[in-house]
Amino acid sequence: MTHGPGDHRKAVGPPAFWDVNAGLQFSLLFALGLREHHTLLDIGCGSLRGGRLFIPYLATGNYYGIEPDRSLVEAGLRDELGECVADLKQPHFEYRDDFAFFVWERRFDFMVAQSILSHTHHDQARRLLTNAHESLADDGVLAATFFWRRPVAGLHVQRPRGTEGTGWTGEFGVAYEWSEMEHMARDAGLALRRLHFPHPRQTWFIAVRQTHASRLRRLAQRADHWPATARDLHRADGIRNRYPRLGRASALAARARRRRPRS
Questions:
Q1: Distance of CA 101 to the CA centre of its chain
Q2: How confident is the model at residue 168, as a pLDDT?
């Protein structure tokens, strides 16, 4: 498959969120401790929405991307990163959809899965989490997003449940209750913590090996000090125009907080 100008951006989500999601990925991982000497696995790296920031930052050879659609990566290299940067930084790529991270025969300091678990039913989600556990460094961190389905009401209740079905799903995606995500991670040997770090539509969490579960609170504190960024994100024109109800609801909630008497 070939991609025309701009198509590689549309293929990985709403173009209005392209730069926002790229910056959020990089900002979150940097806040969690990513530095240039670390190795990073970008799960579902697509057209290098995040890769165009990670690859120049990381030391040569420290970026790894896994993606089913080779043409998306090639479009990202050509139209976003530039082949000269790729030649200098020597990123590694594998083109497959089975989350076989072990093909590189190494363990990674950090992993990021932006908008992947939002499109995988439970069998694929379990495979991702299990293989992440096997390929994480002993003190490694996985940061991932998903559509968080509240048990009774709220956002994403209209989406299909990730536990009902198998394989990959389409553009609309699937949603998981937090307890369902925790259960799958626990079976894979991982401990999770949900973050308050901003995202236009999904929810971030971090995962570490269960033997390092005590690190989660400290890691989350590094990420959860972004309230100003969250406010700016919800005020962004692209998001306000796309989700006017969300904008009004946020404004009403902020007004109620200001009126709340102090104890």
A1: 17
A2: 85
Integer Cα distance of 171 and 199 in angstroms: 18
Return the minimum-mean-pLDDT range out of 9-18, 173-182, 206-215: 9-18
Whole-number Cα distances in Å, 259 to 246, 250, 255 = 20, 14, 6
d(CA 238, CA 139): 37
Which of the four pLDDT bands, split at 50, 70 and 90, describes residue 222?
Answer: confident
Residue 144: which H helix or E strand, with range? Answer: strand 136-148
Average per-residue pLDDT for the chain: 85
d(CA 139, CA 194): 18
Q: Are 77 and 146 in contact (CB under 8 A)?
A: no
pLDDT at 3: 46
The C-alpha angle 54, 201, 226, rounded to 5 degrees, equals: 60
Predicted TM-score of the model (pTM):
0.81
DSSP string, 167-235: SB--TT--EE-HHHHHHHHHHTTEEEEE-----SSSEEEEEEEGGGGGGHHHHHHHHS--HHHHHHHHH
The Cα 69–Cα 12 span in angstroms is 11
Residue 69's CB is within 10 A of a number of other CB atoms, namely: 19
Largest distance between two CA atoms of the chain: 61
Closest residue by Cα to residue 192 from 204, 201, 175, 176: 204
The predicted structure's pLDDT at residue 208: 98
Question: Distance between CA 135 and CA 163 in Å, rounded?
Answer: 25
